[in-house]
Amino acid sequence: MTETGLTPMQVIVAATQNGAKLLGINNTCGTLQKGMKADFMMLNGDPLKDIKQTRNLAAVYKDGKKVGNGVGK
To answer: Which one of 23, 38, 40, 51 has the fewest beta carbons within 10 angstroms of its own beta carbon?
Structure first.
């Protein structure tokens, strides 16, 4: 998506917030804020500088609880 001209932030919003809107689940997920489901990943790098850093997982959280330490760990 960045190759078509979108910024890394636009790609992240499209995949999360806009994806949740498209699926009709944006009232419970898609953004990190109070009252929403806390499914998210922590990264080792800055995806706003290089979108490929979204593949560089440090940890994965489901419902606010850590469930993994990144890819292959």
So the answer is: 23
Residues 6, 3: Cα–Cα separation, whole Å: 7
Within 13 Å and on the Cβ side, how many CA atoms surround 53? 14
* pTM higher than the cut 0.85: no
In the sheet with 57-62, reading across from the earlier edge strand, the strands are 40-43, 57-62, 65-68
Q: State pLDDT tens for residues 51-64.
A: 999 999 999 999 88
Q: Give the domain ranges of the chain.
A: 2-29+36-65
